[in-house]
Amino acid sequence: MGYIPQHSLENLKKYAYKGVDKSLVSRYLLNPFWTWFVTLWPLSIAPNTITLTGLLIVFVNFFTLLYYDPLYLTEHDDVTAPPRWVYYTWAVGLFAYQSLDAIDGKQARRTGMAGPLGEMFDHGCDALNTTLEVILASRALGLGRSWWTVASQIATLANFYLTTWEEYHTGQLFLGHFSGPVEGILMIVAIYLITGHYGPAFWEQKIWTFTHLEHVPFIARLPNLPLNESFMVFGAFGLGFNIISSYMNVLKATRAAKASSLRPLLLLTPFVVSAALQVAWLSHPQFNNSYIIGSAAFVPFLCAWGLQFAHMVGRMILAHVTKGPFPMWDWVWIWSVAGALDANLPVFGMSPIIQTCPRNTTIFVWFTLAISFLTYARFVSLVISDITNYLGIACFTVRKKDEKGVWHDARPDKLS
Fold it and tell me: What's the main place this protein lives (predicted)?
């Protein structure tokens, strides 16, 4: 009933992390800070504990949104923005998450706990953080419940999927000169700080008016989009660049291995299919094409989508560390398939069977969220159990081998 076949467990011992980070910001600004910051943590604290601490901070930010902006989860359109100071806490929380996410690997090397479990745990927390930050950043930008937020979710998850897909084929995590975990996060931190100072209305200004370029002949022919929508367009160009960059790295690796350079492209279809399912479900013809987007079901829908995505990329990372086959299908999608098909039955002249009214749609979305949560929780618990039992390590406890090769919980005074 586990996720790791017996014959793949042996590959866990062969795992070795490989990564490339070309970011100048990371090399010259952040890494010196991270190198100092990790020394503040006792050697008795496990790396995964540091990772989990960062994720819990993000959850605090998310629950702060729900507490100070409860109308965001209701049917009402008169959504009131959270107090200005809340956005500052989001900025601090996200920067703290980035820092803790960066030093967990350093802590793993300090304590001798580097291994496949650490990568699985790190990427799993990153996957959850991705959706939560989409919701928070969209709220800070004033996008709210809109297709722009959906587009942001697709673009952000696509970037994460590409990075994982690339790592599976190249054997290393590649971060370019501009990457989501470094510059992308710092941009979101800056957005939170700007919103905290000026308020969400700041992002409604037209970009060419704001930059005083609206009278330049060439610029005047371009759409004068609001700043928040312009940021989304910028993200689309960034996604396009990352697609090309990731494929070039995969192409180089496949050619070196004398393997097919086209097959990796087929392994992008799981994300395309899963995203298409969510969009099809959101395009509910029974309720003016956007019922879920404009209702209390929107945030639960995004969270369910994020959990399904975390399950999908979690299996991809597991395939990487165990050298297993790439997962092409995820059974948790069945709920999205049911939701999308049921919602679009009117296109074929039939009435929905489950989502017969807005209330039933909301109930089904929450049910999908519950199933997605339980599925991902099961995945996490089983994978942690399999890896810790096979390797004889602990998830949240630092352990050391004795002279006979037996693992024991290490005391701080025995660590060096």
Answer: membrane
What six digits make up the tokens of 81? 């923005």
**Helix (H/G/I), strand (E/B), else coil: 279:** helix
Cα–Cα distances in angstroms (integers) from residue 148 to residues 132, 280, 326, 336, in the given order: 16, 16, 31, 20
Phi, psi for 409 (deg, rounded to 5)? -65, 130
How far apart, in whole angstroms, are the C-alpha atoms of residue 138 and residue 69? Answer: 13
153-157 CB contacts, 8 Å cutoff, 24+ apart:
153/302, 153/305, 153/306, 154/275, 154/279, 155/232, 155/235, 155/236, 155/238, 155/239, 156/130, 156/131, 156/180, 157/130, 157/131, 157/271, 157/275, 157/306, 157/309
Q: For residues 372-387, give the mean pLDDT.
A: 95
Report the relative pairing of strands 173-175 and 19-21 from DSSP bridges. parallel
Catalytic annotation, pick one of 7, 123, 169, 408: 123
Neighbour tally for 122: CB within 10 Å:
23
CA 397/CA 408 separation, integer angstroms: 10
Place of tokens 């993200």: 235
What does the alpha-carbon distance between residue 46 and residue 143 come to, in Å, rounded to a whole number?
38
What's the pTM value of the predicted model, to 2 decimals? 0.91
**Torsion angles phi and psi, residue 396, rounded to 5:** -120, 20
Q: Looking at this protein, which amino acid is placed at residue 23?
A: S
Domains of the chain: 6-414 (1.20.120.1760)
Question: 123 catalytic, yes or no?
Answer: yes
Return the structure tokens found at 22.
């070309």
Selection from 238, 66, 236 nearest residue 139 by Cα: 66
Higher pLDDT, 81 or 394: 394
DSSP structure class, residue 408: E
Per the prediction, the chain carries an average pLDDT of 88
Residues 6+ positions from 214 with CB-CB distance below 8 Å: 206, 208, 220, 224
In angstroms, the CA 391 to CA 190 distance is 42
